[in-house]
Design goal:
Membrane topology: Single-pass type IV membrane protein
Strand content: 15-25%
Pfam families: Longin
Order of helices and strands: EEHEEEHHHHEHHH
Number of domains: 2
Number of helices: 8
Main location: endoplasmic reticulum
Protein name: 25.3 kDa vesicle transport protein
Structural class: alpha+beta
Organism: Prunus avium
CATH superfamily of the largest domain: Longin domain
Number of strands: 6
Length: about 220
């Protein structure tokens, strides 16, 4: 069954519409899967996921998505739901979405404010609830020998990759400091900067004292 649908804009990762869901919106599972769908949209938006089609396994469910003209269509289904039907559903959404004025879509600034498309999602979703209808069976039987050439990945792997990229992008004190080619480490450079002026001062004072003593001795010898 198609349980959740999210339509989003890739340019900024903004969720435009979500339509009705088979999950109770007050139930914690709805918020959990909704956050996962929004995370997938952001990952597509930043280029971490393929900007075409993909199936993402999440526990006993699957997120299927497709991207057309800068818009991502994402749906959550049971893992047993035919993937072929899921992508037919997304294709139908994409075709209906093209009927809307693109300038109107660009004006949306708040999440899930493209309410006009929510009704469209609901109407199309009803057609895909029962996989045994004649229309859906025809879609499943068409080109049965042709497999869907779509990448599949686990959501846990995508999250792990995202966490790793966050660590790499996090500013590091040890790496952000420029290392002196002379001292080879920031710590030695700090010590050198602290003590070098003092050492130079002591050296200069010592030389001056030595020169004064030598000059005094020379004058004393001349007088004698």
């Amino acid at each position: 069954m198609v349980k959740l649908t999210i339509v989003g804009r890739l340019s900024d990762g903004l969720c435009l519409a979500k339509g009705p869901s088979s999950l109770n919106e007050e139930h914690e599972n709805f918020s959990f899967y909704k956050r996962q769908g929004e995370f997938i949209l952001r990952e597509i938006s930043r280029g971490a996921l393929p900007p075409s089609k993909m199936t993402i396994r999440a526990d006993h469910h699957c997120f299927n998505y497709m991207v057309e003209n800068g818009i991502a269509f994402i749906t959550l289904c049971d893992s047993s739901y035919p993937r072929k039907l899921a992508f037919h559903y997304l294709q139908d959404l994409q075709k209906e979405f093209e009927n809307f004025d693109s300038s109107l879509i660009k004006k949306v600034t708040r999440p899930y404010c493209f309410i006009k498309f929510d009704g469209v999602i609901g109407n199309i979703r009803k057609q895909y609830i029962d996989t045994r209808t004649q229309a859906n069976l025809s879609k499943l039987n068409a080109n049965r020998k042709q497999d869907l050439d779509i990448a599949t990945e686990n959501l846990s792997e995508i999250i792990e990759r995202w966490r790793y990229s966050e660590i790499l992008e996090r500013p590091s004190t040890s790496t952000s400091q420029a290392v002196s080619p002379i001292w080879c480490s920031p710590r030695l450079e700090v010590i050198a900067m602290k003590w070098t002026p003092i050492t130079v001062t002591i050296f200069v004072v010592t030389v001056l004292l030595w020169a004064t003593i030598v000059h005094t001795d020379d004058n004393f010898m001349i007088l004698n």
